[in-house]
Design a protein that fits this description.
Elements: E1 20-24, H1 37-50, E2 54-57, E3 60-61, H2 70-87, E4 92-95, E5 98-100, H3 103-111, E6 122-126, H4 136-145, E7 149-152, H5 159-162, H6 165-173, E8 177-181, H7 192-202, E9 208-210
Parallel strand pairs: 1-2, 2-4, 3-5, 5-6, 6-7, 7-8, 8-9
């Protein structure tokens, strides 16, 4: 259970990160995370300093940008476990993914070709930031009926949800659980993302925390997300 403390600057004290980072781009060379083992080790060391004992590796899965297969991610996770073991790092790695909300994801659900994590069988998925995709509800329903728990990534980032509390309530009603990026709690009051993260937390709507780390960034700063924000490509997190 999270505790609520108000700080002098008026912001709430961030919730404890806990021992599991459920959203992290730690696998090297597979998406917009670290390029090599050195970068992955730097993230792992930072997570260890934060008290994290388990990291769920959640590389992007986007059909036309990062078409990572389940087999490719699983092999990369195995390699990372060996690397951490050889480096003496006491952090577990679990295989996951950050699936993009697109038609291809519905096909994956149909095939049960998914990397779910935790006892809840969470399947992490992300939406475009600016607009609500047509398939969002279908994805939630399909995941739930297939025995998974739909887990929407970094809920605080979506403008279409920040403007529409009813849409947030609706997603909850249809079984969607919410992942929030821990660095968002450190954003100032002028930040829509920061305010949304804090609002969700106060309302008890934060189910899962993650760092969404792509590089080894300091613990109390927002992680820097993808540099692929050009053209018509989706904004990634
Ligand atoms: Fe992400």
């Amino acid at each position: 259970m999270f505790s609520l403390l108000i700080r002098r600057d008026g912001l709430i004290d961030p919730p404890p990160m806990g021992e599991r980072d459920s959203h992290c781009h730690i696998l090297p060379g597979i998406d917009d995370g670290p390029k090599d083992d050195h970068g992955a080790l730097a993230i792992a060391r930072l997570l260890c300093e934060m008290g994290v004992r388990k990291v769920v590796a959640t590389p992007h899965v986007i059909s036309d940008v990062y078409p990572n297969s389940t087999a490719k991610i699983s092999a990369a996770v195995d390699a990372l476990r060996r690397l951490f073991s050889a480096s003496g790092l006491g952090i577990e790695v679990e295989a996951g993914a950050e699936y993009y909300a697109e038609g291809e994801l519905l096909d994956r659900i149909e095939r049960r070709d998914l990397l779910a994590f935790g006892a809840e069988k969470y399947v992490l998925f992300e939406s475009p930031v600016e607009r609500r995709p047509m398939v969002l509800e279908d994805i939630a329903f399909s995941l739930a009926s297939a025995g998974y728990t739909p887990l929407l990534a970094h809920v605080e980032r979506y403008a279409f949800l920040r403007k529409d509390p009813d849409a947030v309530a609706h997603l909850r009603e249809i079984g969607v659980r919410f992942q929030v990026n821990h660095p968002s709690f450190h954003l100032p009051k002028t930040s829509g993302r920061g305010e949304m993260a804090r609002s969700l937390y106060v309302k008890g709507l934060v189910d899962v925390l993650g760092t969404d780390m792509h590089r080894a960034t300091p613990w109390d700063q927002p992680s820097r997300s993808a540099s692929l924000r050009t053209g018509r490509r989706p904004r990634l997190g």
